[in-house]
Amino acid sequence: MGDAHVTTQEDRRAVTPSLVADGPRPAGSTRTTARARLGSLRSPRRPRLWFEILLIAVSYWLYSLVRNAVPEQKAAALRNADWIWSLEHSVGLAFEETVNHAVNSVTWLIVSMNYYYATLHFIVTIAVLVWLFRRHPGRYAATRLVLFATTAVALLGYYLFPLAPPRLMRGGGFVDTVLLHQTWGSMASGNFKQMSNQYAAMPSMHIGWSLWCGLTIFALARVPWVRVLGLLYPAATLVVIVSTANHFWLDAVGGMTCLAFGYAVSYAWYGALPHRLPKVVPARAGRGRPRALRRPSGPSGPTAPAARPSAPSAGRPVAPRRPEPDPAAAVPPTPPGA
C-alpha cells in the first residue's frame, strides 16, 4: 500500500482562510475607505442636545468677539454711508429717512419696533433651531450649516466694508429711536454703544437670520397660516430695521446675499437643500459586529457551525477503512421450486 497522508492541526491552520488580510492594504482599498468615511460625515445624523447647546453658545461668542474686534474705522464707515445714500438717491429708492420720521411720530409703534429689533432677532432664531431639533432631526444639521455659513461670511463684510448705520450719518436727518425714547435692548445705542461695533451695518444679519427662519418655516411647516407667518417675519424685520434707522435697505440685500452663500455651502456638503433631506435620520446599519463577520440566522436562530472531525495523533498511520458489507449479498438465493 502507498503511504497514507497524515493531516495535522498545523496543516489545517495553514489552509484555513483568514478573515483579516495580512500586509498593507492596496491603494484602491484605502481610497474606498476614505470615501466611505467622507460619505459618513456628509450623511445627516441625529443631533445631540449637549453638543448643539455648546456649539451654538461658543459660535455666537466667537461671532461677537470677532465682530467687535473689527476696527471701528469711523471715517471709512461714514464715507461708505454717504456713498450708499447717494447710490440709493441715484436709483430713486432713498426712502429710509421718510419711513424713519413717519414711524417715529407714533410713539407706541416705534417703541415696539425698538424691542422687536433688540429681542426677536435671537428669540425666533433659537425657537426655529429647537423646532428643527425636535421635529426635523434629519434636516437639522444641514439647516444649521446654512445659518453658520451665513454668519461666518458676514464677518468678512464687516471687515472689508465698514458702514455706519443711517442714525449715525453726519447731517442725514435720521432719528436714533432707541436713544430718543430710552428703550432698552440695542447694543449700538444708549448705554450699550461701547460694547458693540457700531460700524458693522453691512450686511444686515437681522435680515439674514430672519430670512433663514422664514424660509425654513415656509419649507417645512404643514399648517398654511404658519407658513405665511414664516414669510411675513423677514418682511416685518425689513420694515423694523429701516424704521429704527439701523440699516439701509441695501444692507438687507447684503444679508440676503450672505444667506444665498450659506445655502450654497450646505448644498455642496450634503448634496441637497435642507428641506429635500429626510425628516428623520434612518437607523445606521452595521452597529456592533461587522456585517461580514455575522453568522447567518436561520428560522430558529443562528445556525451552529459544522463539527470538525477530530484530528488523529501526529505520527500514527491511518488504517484503511474496510468496505461496508452489502446487505443484499448476505441473503442466500432461494432454490427453484421452494
TrEMBL record:
Keywords: Membrane, Transmembrane, Transmembrane helix
Transmembrane segments: 49-66, 115-133, 145-161, 199-221, 228-246, 252-270
Keyword Transmembrane: yes
Composition-biased stretches (Low complexity): 295-318
Membrane topology: Multi-pass membrane protein
Region ranges (Disordered): 1-32, 284-338
Subcellular locations according to the entry: Membrane
Annotated signal peptide: none
Ranges where the Inositolphosphotransferase Aur1/Ipt1 domain occurs: 83-264
InterPro entries for the chain: Aur1/Ipt1 (IPR026841), IPC_Synthase-Related (IPR052185)
Protein name per its UniProtKB record: Phosphatase PAP2 family protein
Species of provenance: Streptomyces salyersiae
Taxonomic classification: Bacteria, Bacillati, Actinomycetota, Actinomycetes, Kitasatosporales
